[in-house]
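Sample A.
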Amino acid sequence: MSGSVGVVDPARDLADRVLAAPPRLGVVRLVVIDGPSGAGKSHLAARVVDVLRGRGADPALVSTDDFATWDDPVSWWPRLSAGVLEPLAAGRPGRYRRTEWTEAGEPVAGGYVAVPVPGVLVLEGVSSGRRSVRGWVSVLCWLDHADRATRLARAVARDGEWSRPQLERWQRFEAGWFAVDEPRHAADVAYSSERSNPVVRDD
């Protein structure tokens, strides 16, 4: 990645990039949005899906939040790979069982989610850009927000005040994970969400 910085609409920019890139997950183009908790990955992913759908690209969205729990932040990956990525790579629909949460904040096995073979699969969430998936990825995006306290506040506002201790522990874990796995350095494009509008691209 070069050091140039420009102002873009990240959802349209990502849609442009993935549609211009070759499919690597069988016939599917896979765009991954990785980055720390509270950076805005889910919001960006939803916008990318909307843009792609408007362009007739037949997108599907999978979030790592459907797999991860406080006590299992990253080792659930074989379920996503076996249930979604490997079938799609072979031209078959995927299927996985979503993690749901009780009112007491406990994870439980939820319903099954079908993933028909899409034109573009948008995969978002912490660790979604890990080394083991990069050979299948058409575009790897890193979304960041440098201020840790702001990211924590965003995540607490999303999940509830009860989650603050868990989110603080999660932030410590993900910082160590990113230092070893280095998705930021492998990314095709990086955005910052420190400005609410617009988002800044660094590539």
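Sample B, a different protein:
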Amino acid sequence: MPKAPLPPDVAELFRRPNPAVVAVLRPDGSPMSVATWYLLEDDGTVLLNMDAERARVSWMRRRPEVALTALEEGSWYTHVSIRGRIVRWEEDPERAMADIDRLSNLYGGQDYRVRDRRRISCWVEVSHWHGWGEAKAD
């Protein structure tokens, strides 16, 4: 797997609101994956935002290694997978919900509709990446 940072053409593909799955480690070391929204930030980290009560939040705090695969919309053959570590956590306050709204606007064009649940954000520092199809590494 090539090391970070993502080359510009791969970063451009990864910036799009592609369908994605994140994999985390459970307490027993087994993997668990779930569909997710993500956002590649300007500094190269990847924003994830979750309901604060999800079990995976505590698992990710304990074992901050994650993997995420984004599939190009309409062409699952082209995809980008990243591996990395969570380097920052922040509450996404109920009234502001700035992070989940950024994701919701990217994916759906409007603010997130569920406003009565606590949200938490984390940022993944990409260490390695792998691409396939149009994103294949040379």
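Observation for Sample B: Strands lie at 20-25, 31-36, 39-40, 46-51, 65-72, 75-92, 119-132.
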